[in-house]
Inverse folding.
């Protein structure tokens, strides 16, 4: 009975704390500006199925893709077992579904075990890639400190989780074969699970009944404890992508990547300027006068769209964007991954301050300047390689562009040559100093 | 002036009471840059050869505003765009072919939100359709026999608008060997010109982007690096010079290759 109560409390605290942190992230994301991504539901579902569920873009790099798929499949399938663990924990029964599901139960647990072994191997290889082989994109300068620890922590937690699964199933297998398991005896000698029926006797075969029960219980409780530790670690970690990859791909930009957003706020003013009938001294009508003055581009996270902010929480720092960025590849300061990490860090900071000091609190900091430098932004060629490379359809380029807009239109900070180029366009309708009258000279030149 | 170099302006055509099938939007580079002017002429020859009734805007053409927008100046972009839309709509233009992927992208994707709605094609798409329709015969020519050609994907044509096949299908018409770089199509590396980089010095780094891309191209040992963008052309030409390969490797637009093969 006590264990049922402990379990129920654990369940409540585990889900409750996660929900509260997830809700903070939700409110942080909603600080962003509105953008409409509610159209084309069918197309969006298709994109989500292919990119998030099917991991289509991961398979551009087959080796990490296969390893990642092992982990992903094991993770998804293990959730089925979790249902039984919760049911057992709340009912005080053991292997509640085995009697009723019969052969299907054996198949499911076997399937989980096989995937868990694959995931175990994959996790070791992932640890090696990060720490021994030192794959360059996983060891760039923005990955020093917490991001590196974060990446390793997740992998270690996965190893522990899988170890607990095999302690649980392996010790239980030995107990069952001796008729000592708490699971209902169906008159057979073995659970018949693909891995643990062999591994169990090898690892735990010589142990006494009491030791076996302790090992099995450590496995069982350890498993569920790790699950909740993991769940509650997610909101503080890059690993949140396992959940956000789905909404993030659903809300993908469905327009051509080459198309940049149109600034409606600018459009109103330009139309007014170009309208020969417009009265420049006209008093703006009341509704317009009361409206908040629009800021051009993004100086801080709340100037970005909620999709930009969702992108930031979805990023798992794999670095494919940076690895493909021509600026980064030629030693420039720009790293699209750092843009996403900075956006998340600043958003976390701003969200915390607002919850502490109220909605209008100004901490005197901003994403632009305090986190991201002009030099990074001006190195971008807008080539979309980062957008194309991202396995979960994150768009670092649109953040870079919004900040360029803020630099240019709010702060008049433009590199000198670009200021010259822009004034050429204004004066002669070309980025160079040529007269528009000479545009057709090529027709008569040899 | 040969028949193939006949270039009427919209103003001239309208004065004669004629309506063109398509407007050829030349672009700033194609109008003013000496190297890019050759690409412009190749496109004109192909259009004339196929008896496509086209016109240019000439002095009435102006920058699309792309470099201003990519540099973050939406005001100057929209001023340019709205003035251009006024001119285009004034002539009742419906269909546009551009000689530059940047003009193509912005007019196709970004002008509609400012009220400019046109059917916009990049020159590789138009020429490809002319070949498909049988309006343009490309013999292949002996001049490309045994030559290796690699195609550098312009970002705003490839990743930006998913046009990967049109230029490649054109190159396959030539009697040459088409070889792909390791980073091609959706993975194609930028030449370094986009996002208004063309008009400024690059930020501090250990290499220029165009040199990186040229190195990738030279890995496949091509005789010709084909492009579909005047800015890529400039960048790759500079890259080839940087590598002292201008004697053995040429940078040529797909339109020029087709015009040469069609003996224009």
């Amino acid at each position: 009975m006590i264990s049922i109560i402990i379990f129920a409390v654990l369940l409540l605290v585990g889900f409750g704390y996660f929900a509260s942190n997830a809700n903070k992230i939700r409110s942080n994301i909603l600080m962003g500006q509105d953008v409409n991504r509610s159209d084309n539901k069918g197309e969006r579902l298709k994109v989500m199925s292919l990119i998030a569920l099917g991991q289509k873009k991961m398979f551009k790099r087959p080796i990490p893709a296969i390893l990642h798929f092992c982990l992903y499949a094991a993770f998804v399938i293990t959730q089925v077992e979790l249902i039984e663990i919760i049911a057992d924990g709340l009912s005080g029964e053991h292997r509640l579904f085995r009697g009723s599901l019969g052969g299907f139960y054996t198949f499911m647990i076997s399937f989980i075990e096989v995937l868990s072994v694959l995931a175990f191997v994959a996790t070791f290889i992932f640890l090696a890639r990060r720490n021994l082989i030192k794959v360059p994109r996983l060891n760039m300068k923005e990955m020093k400190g917490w991001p590196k620890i974060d990446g390793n922590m997740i992998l270690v937690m996965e190893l522990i989780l899988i170890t607990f699964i095999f302690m649980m199933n392996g010790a239980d297998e030995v107990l069952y074969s001796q008729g000592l398991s708490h699971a209902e005896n169906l008159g057979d000698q073995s659970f018949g699970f693909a891995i643990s029926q062999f591994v169990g006797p090898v690892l735990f075969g010589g142990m006494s009944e009491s030791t076996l029960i302790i090992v099995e219980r450590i496995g069982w409780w350890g498993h569920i404890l790790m699950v909740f530790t993991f769940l509650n670690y997610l909101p503080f970690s890059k690993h949140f992508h396992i959940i956000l990859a789905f909404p993030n791909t659903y809300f993908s930009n469905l327009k051509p990547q080459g198309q940049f957003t149109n600034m409606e706020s600018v459009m109103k003013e330009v139309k007014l300027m170009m309208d020969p009938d417009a009265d420049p001294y006209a008093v703006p009508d009341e509704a317009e006068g009361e409206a908040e003055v629009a800021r051009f581009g993004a100086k801080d996270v709340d100037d970005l769209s909620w999709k930009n902010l969702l992108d930031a929480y979805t990023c798992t720092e794999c670095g494919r964007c940076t690895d493909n960025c021509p600026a980064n590849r030629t030693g420039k300061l720009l790293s699209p991954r750092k843009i996403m990490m900075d956006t998340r860090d600043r958003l976390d900071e701003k969200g915390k301050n607002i919850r502490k000091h109220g909605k209008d609190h100004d901490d005197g900091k901003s994403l632009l300047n305090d986190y991201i430098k002009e030099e990074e932004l001006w190195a971008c060629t807008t080539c979309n390689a980062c957008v194309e490379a991202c396995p979960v359809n994150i768009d670092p380029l649109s953040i870079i562009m919004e900040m360029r807009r803020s630099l240019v239109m709010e702060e008049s900070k433009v590199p000198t040559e670009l200021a010259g180029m822009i004034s050429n366009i204004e004066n002669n309708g070309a980025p160079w100093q040529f007269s528009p009258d000479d545009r057709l000279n090529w027709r008569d030149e040899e | 002036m040969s028949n193939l170099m006949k270039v009427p302006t919209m103003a001239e055509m309208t004065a004669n009471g004629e309506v063109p099938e398509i407007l050829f939007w030349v672009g700033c580079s194609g109008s003013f840059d000496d190297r890019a002017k050759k690409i412009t002429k190749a496109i004109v020859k192909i259009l004339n050869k196929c008896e496509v009734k086209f016109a240019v805007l000439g002095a009435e053409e102006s920058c699309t505003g792309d470099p201003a927008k990519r540099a973050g100046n939406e005001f100057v972009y929209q001023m340019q765009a709205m003035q251009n839309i006024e001119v285009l709509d004034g002539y009742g233009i419906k269909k546009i072919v551009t000689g530059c992927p940047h003009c193509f992208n912005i007019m196709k994707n970004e002008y509609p939100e400012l009220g400019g709605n046109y059917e916009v094609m990049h020159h590789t798409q138009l020429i490809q359709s002319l070949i498909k329709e049988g309006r343009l015969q490309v013999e292949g020519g002996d001049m490309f026999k045994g030559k290796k050609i690699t195609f550098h994907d312009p970002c705003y044509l490839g990743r930006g608008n998913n046009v990967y096949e049109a230029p490649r299908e054109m190159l396959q018409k030539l009697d040459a060997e088409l070889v792909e770089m390791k980073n091609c199509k959706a993975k194609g590396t930028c030449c370094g010109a986009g996002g208004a980089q063309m008009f400024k010095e690059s930020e501090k780094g250990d290499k220029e982007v165009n040199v990186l891309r040229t190195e990738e191209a030279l890995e496949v040992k091509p005789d010709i690096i084909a492009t579909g963008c005047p800015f890529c052309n400039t960048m790759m030409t500079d890259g080839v010079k940087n590598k002292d390969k201008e004697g053995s490797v040429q940078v040529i637009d797909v339109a020029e290759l087709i015009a040469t093969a069609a003996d224009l």
Notes: The radius of gyration of chain B is 18 Å. DSSP finds eleven helices and eight strands in chain B. The CA atoms of residues 111 and 117 of chain B lie 7 Å apart. The first helix of chain B runs from residue 10 to 15.
